[in-house]
Amino acid sequence: MASPAEAPAIPGIATGKIGVWWFLASEIMLFGGLIASYSVFRLGGPGWAEAAHHLSVPLASINTLVLLTSSYTVVRAFVAAERGDVRALRVYLGLTILGGLIFLGIKAVEYTTEIRAGFPPAAGIFWSFYYTMTGLHALHVLAGVVVNSIVLATEGVGAKNPHRVELAGLYWHFVDVVWIFLFPLLYLL
Amino acid sequence: MTSGKVHPNYTAVWLWLLALLGLGVAASFLPGGRTLAVLVILATASAKALLVALNFMHLRFEPALLYALVLIPLLFLVVLAAVLFPDFVWHSRPR
Predict the structure, then answer these.
(1) What burial class does residue A152 get, using C-beta atoms within 10 Å of its C-beta: 0-12 exposed, 13-18 middle, 19+ buried?
(2) Do B45 and A43 touch (CB under 8 A)?
């Protein structure tokens, strides 16, 4: 909720929301650039699908399920915040943070398994792309866990500003959308 | 100003997301040619992203000007891919 003193730059949208979307627009270019160059490299060179077969589709599918579900819980947290239901807000934000931590844990297991199997980042161009894209995404998940924890610490003690929950949620959904594309491009194709 | 009191059915959206995830993973096990599998996998991924952006990120309820913020970088991406694409055509052309 914008304070009465600030006039929104776009009528009908709070300034903070424009700010978050502006930031997400730059993030689209960041991940989009990586995805576009990955796709062009992959289309142009043979042997990529074979390297991709060493990844664990079951683990990544579970991770996708976890991230999709955490997107659902963060949106429920926003509904709870709007209603002023602090208890539900705490539960749903807590579940969202837990989802992010589970995702990172599974990712860590994957990295360990892959490196032990002889596929460190330097094992080939597929692996360089794989570690760069999933690593950058994992950093974003970590950032989301931190942001959601801050919102939990401030809003969880008395929902004063449901707008903050929505803005943190926007970022979290974006991280989810990036994974929605990384998962098929790296694991399934 | 939050996105208003109108909320989509979040639970239904979530169930759709899980169904599309299952479909995409199942498609990767399709026997035979890869074309169909690749199409299904990419289509389910795009559908999931749209569902999240329109419902969870509330784009359905936002004014048109906010779409500009989302669409401009996507347009840049198309341009970027189009500029990179000749490189792949060049190198994979039989010599």
Answers:
(1) buried
(2) no
